[in-house]
Amino acid sequence: MSHVELPRALEDYFAHAETAQTRTGRRFTITLPYRDGERLDRLQWWWQVSATQEKLGGEETLAKLRAEAVARFRRHIERWLENNGQRLHGDGPIPLLAKQPSLTAAPEAVLQDLPEPQVANG
Length: 122
What we know:
The protein has helices at 51-84, 107-112; strands at 4-5, 15-18, 25-36, 39-50, 86-89, 96-99. It is an alpha+beta fold. A three-stranded mixed sheet has the order 1-5-6. It has a three-stranded antiparallel sheet with strand order 2-3-4. It has two helices and six strands; from the N terminus they run ββββαββα.
């Protein structure tokens, strides 16, 4: 079962922003807001472009680095959801966080179906 069950691509829920530029380069954030019950929370990813990178590659380099940052953030979110047994779902503008439904039987039911152990004397 997928950990992301949204009507649009996960990236469509990302918000992008740039912080104040410094002499060493530019810094950006990618933010994914989500609702955990009644609580509004967010996951955030930071990435940067050095002044040298921007000077050498211009807007093309900026677009490439942004695409790489978005891909890394998406992988990070998917792993985070998997590791925590959760999923993102919902039809609204902000995804909802919920526990991943379990596909396995309850431990007691699994143990009841096992055959009795046999001991071999040797």
